[in-house]
Amino acid sequence: MIRNLYDRTIALAHHPRALWALAGVSFLESSVFPIPPDLLMIPMILAARDKAFLIATVALVSSVLGGLLGYAIGAFAFDTIGQPILASLGKAHAMEEFNQRFNDLGFWAVLTAGLTPFPYKVITIMSGWTGMPLGTFIATSILARAGRFFLVAWLLHAFGPPIRDFIERRLGLVLTAFVIALIGGFLLVKAL
């Protein structure tokens, strides 16, 4: 089953609308969607290594724009939209206490969430809710997401065939490691 899904994703990476799909996933992941864009970005780069940096750029721009939506949700619709999203991640009880701590660490919180499997949408919503300066949020989001997406693009562009071979031979292991990292990010959210 996993092999079929992987093969299908690789085949879809050549589809004319693949970049639009990546843009949509990257945008939504930054504010409301639980699946990271890496799941689409990595197979796309493996299928078309010559487009690695274009793919990373689409993910970056879409992610930062989606982050602005998350920021707006936190700033203008926290009670109706932001609170339920954060509550679904187990963070509803600690919002007030977290407010001051978050602003003290704002730059580092956005940078860390943007670079790691930590759910970026939590940080985008919290940035708006706590009133983080918009300029700081945008600059840090660009820095973090560019670091994450362009590092992946560079690694896959530079070492594509061996990495692709490793992924294809050990697909179950790679998927398990990714899921563990994703769950770890959600557990980290619950611990904060």
Structural summary, described in words:
By secondary structure, the protein is mainly α. The protein has one domain. Helix content is about 80%, strand content about 0%. It has nine helices and no strands. It has helices at about 1-10, 20-30, 40-45, 50-75, 80-90, 95-115, 120-130, 135-170, 170-190. α6 packs across α8.
What overall geometry do the principal axes of the alpha carbons give? elongated
Mean pLDDT across the residues is: 78
Radius of gyration: 17 Å
Low-pLDDT sequence parts: none
Helix and strand composition category:
mainly alpha
**Helix-strand pattern, N to C?**
HHHHHHHHH
How far is the first residue's CA from the last residue's CA? Answer: 36 Å
User: What about the largest sheet?
Assistant: none
- The tally of strands reads 0
**SS summary, helix count:** 9
Q: What is the helix fraction of residues, given as a range?
A: over 70%
β-sheet strand percentage: under 5%
User: How many domain modules?
Assistant: 1
